[in-house]
Write a structure and sequence with these properties.
heterodimer; A: about 260 residues; outer membrane lipoprotein receptor (LolB), chain A; 13-stranded antiparallel β-sheet; 13 strands; B: about 425 residues; mainly beta; about 5% helix
């Protein structure tokens, strides 16, 4: 099955196929990023996501989310239930992401204080997710075709042979002027990514801290985004990860957004 | 004695978490809520406090597979007013494969409008502090049977309210008491204002809703009571002088039939929302001398169009709302068209720990407004400090009538 986004690339799964030992074909940068984007994973995933936000003084704030993701073929649906902090508990967020490159995501948020499911625009992908150092775009779909890619070099990072890929957005007004990604050869996941802001200044770095093999898939269970300009860090940790556990289709409905985790 | 009883209730409520914590039952029961201090001071006159309120709000919930319950007691404590101890919600849930039942006191919220009530008419409003309270506090829970039937992303909802609950208005003497103009001081007679609890006097509502990729849609209908009383005015005229010598007001509730719907869809970076309803059989006050009680029955439309957009990380939202009385005659006190707008601008700072927001209601008919800036800072996870103001402009109209009630306020809230 396809895997279409950087977030899932980082958060969800790694390819289970070990290095085959064959001579690698000469790939273009775009082909490498497509391999990352389309890397096979399980069809379903549920997990508890803990985000720890650490500011320049070392003060920590913790957000806990229970999330469910399922691939329906031409659409991938995700629902998130906010567990803590207490003032956002029972808030839920649902995203439907389509294969069709011309179709925007559909997004809804349920606010328990208003007892309403509100449709929101998926256009603001530059917004930061829950005050973290990840934007919605960092967490969501960013199709390889949206950037121009170039192989800068090949080098070993943390013992893994990597392609170092520079990606420059085709949209000049995009929030990043470029990103540089270390893609592990043969496994096709990003081990590290540097982000540069609109002015070309170094902004932040995403690193993988922990990888676990769950149900035959390599699952990245801890990542860290460090914003060097604000000296602010977000650590994302996945626990209770279940792959292909049989999530019902009815999980991704307004009914469940309202009901929550009961 | 009454206060003493309330205190006992409050003490019992406060002790509840401790009691629960001592039992094995507590392990599966969710106890959440908040403690809040809310202090407001008027900007005019002697800078009296508009409110000093301490709140304890508790949500007790438990779920066991196909069944669940929730109880939401709360206490409002004031230094100068009797303490309020009430249940906002207390209901039971039963979940079937495609049907959910909710029985008991509950808040039921419909529609796509923000801060405006068009198809959102199941739960009545508590306007003790006008529209200034948080919306979950304006909405009153009502005893109801609610059944939801789900087919894919479509939902059919049926609601039965066995008894009628009217809007709560501010008590006599409150600065939020709506201003009413009478030619002479009236006498109020509430003998006709009671709606006897009976099967015949119950309310029923139905709604179809669909959440799709293209559009979110709601269609609704209701056979209800008008939550606001009609002020029937009986005049005593001196036959010799033909002058008004007496005026008796009979507040009375009337049946109302409503049909309407709402939608929400995205247009690129915009979210377009619409909502409208046809109200059949609403009573309006009239100056027609031929009418014995100065009221006339008319139908009216109430509708809204709204647009949400994000620009430079600022979330913007605007709504235009119109209420239009059909088959209008010039004796009716209310304008044929009542036009209102709302505007929201909100931006987060400091990794979403600081929020700056401006919300404005604007009444076109009287050129009056309610301007609500506020700054919210999360001092720690779950601990919120809010500083805000409520500024009323104009001299007449829904907002202008409170021109002397401009206030600044703070809210400190600890959620657990």
């Amino acid at each position: 099955m396809r895997r279409r986004n950087w977030y899932l690339m980082l958060i969800l799964a790694l390819m289970a196929i070990p290095f085959a030992g064959k001579a690698q074909e000469k790939l273009t940068a775009l082909e490498i990023m497509r391999k990352v984007y389309n890397r096979p994973t399980g069809k379903e995933m549920e997990a508890t996501l803990t985000m720890t936000l650490i500011n320049a003084n070392g003060d920590k704030r913790v957000r806990v989310i229970k999330q469910f993701i399922k691939d329906f073929g031409n659409v991938e649906k995700k629902i998130m239930f906010f567990v803590s902090p207490a003032d956002v508990r029972n808030t839920s967020f649902m995203n439907w992401s389509y294969d069709d490159p011309n179709k925007d995501d559909d997004q809804w948020i349920y606010l328990p204080a208003l007892k309403k499911v509100k449709r929101i625009s998926s256009d603001s992908k530059g917004d930061y997710f829950m005050g973290s150092d990840f934007t919605y775009d960092d967490l969501g779909d960013r199709k390889p075709e949206e950037d121009n890619h170039k192989i800068l070099r090949e080098e070993t990072l943390e013992g893994e042979p990597c392609y170092v890929i520079e990606s420059i957005p085709k949209d000049e007004d995009y929030m990043y002027s470029r990103t540089v990604t270390w893609v592990v050869k043969g496994k096709w996941y990003g081990l590290k990514r540097d982000f540069y802001d609109e002015d070309g200044e170094y902004l932040k770095t995403l690193k993988i801290n922990k990888v676990e093999n769950i149900k035959g898939y390599w699952i990245i269970t801890q990542t860290e985004m460090h914003n060097v300009q604000k000296n602010h860090t977000t650590r994302m940790t996945l626990t209770d990860v279940k792959i292909d556990s049989g999530i019902k289709n009815s999980m991704f409905t307004e009914r469940m957004m309202r009901r929550g985790l009961r | 004695m009454k206060k003493f009883r309330l205190s006992l209730k409050a003490a019992a409520l406060l002790a509840l978490p401790l009691l629960l914590a001592t039992t094995a039952w507590a392990q599966s029961v969710s106890l959440t809520g908040y403690v809040r201090n809310y202090t407001g001071v008027l900007l005019h006159g002697d800078h009296e406090y508009s409110i000093i309120q301490n709140t304890f709000n508790l949500n007790v919930e438990q779920s066991k597979g196909k069944v669940a319950f929730k109880v939401n007691p709360y206490i409002y404590q004031y230094p100068d007013l009797p303490m309020e101890f009430k249940l906002r919600e207390a209901y039971l849930d039963i979940y079937f494969n495609t049907v959910d039942l909710r029985i008991g006191k509950q808040q039921i919220i419909w529609g796509k409008a923000d801060g405006v009530f068009i198809t959102d008419i199941v739960s009545p409003k508590d306007l003790s502090e006008f529209l200034l309270r948080d919306f979950d506090e304006i909405r009153m829970g009502v005893t109801a049977l609610k059944a939801d039937y789900y087919i894919g992303d479509n939902t059919f909802e049926f609601v039965w309210l066995p008894t009628f609950t009217p809007t709560v208005f501010p008590p006599e003497g409150s600065i939020w008491r709506p201003r009413r103009a009478f030619p002479i001081p009236p006498k109020f007679d509430y003998s006709r204002s009671r709606v006897t609890p009976s099967l015949e006097n119950s309310e029923v509502f139905g709604k179809f809703s669909a959440l799709t990729s293209l559009v979110d849609l709601e269609l609704m209908a209701g056979y209800a009571w008008d939550d606001d009383p009609t002020m029937h005015a009986v005049k005593q005229i001196d036959p010799a002088t033909h002058r008004l010598v007496g005026l008796t007001i009979y507040p009375e509730y009337h049946r109302l039939t409503i049909g309407g719907g709402s939608f929400s869809t995205t247009l690129g970076p915009f979210v377009l929302r619409g909502e409208g309803a046809y109200y059949h059989g609403k009573y309006f006050n009239s100056n027609d001398p031929r009418l014995p009680e100065s009221v006339v029955k008319k139908n009216y439309l109430h509708y809204l169009l709204g647009l949400d957009y994000t620009l430079w990380d600022i979330h913007l939202s605007g709504q235009f709302i119109q209420q239009r009385i059909l088959d209008y005659d010039d004796y009716i006190v209310q304008d044929e068209n009542t036009n209102m707008g709302t505007f929201l601008a909100s931006r987060d700072f400091l990794n979403e720990t600081l929020n700056l927001q401006l919300f404005v209601y604007y009444g076109f008919n009287n050129n009056d407004a309610l301007i609500r800036p506020k700054l919210t800072y999360d001092l720690a996870d779950g601990f919120e400090v809010l500083v805000g103001a409520n500024i009323f402009t104009g001299t007449e109209g829904w907002f202008g009538q409170y021109d002397n009630n401009d206030m600044i306020y703070t809210k400190l809230k600890y959620s657990f």
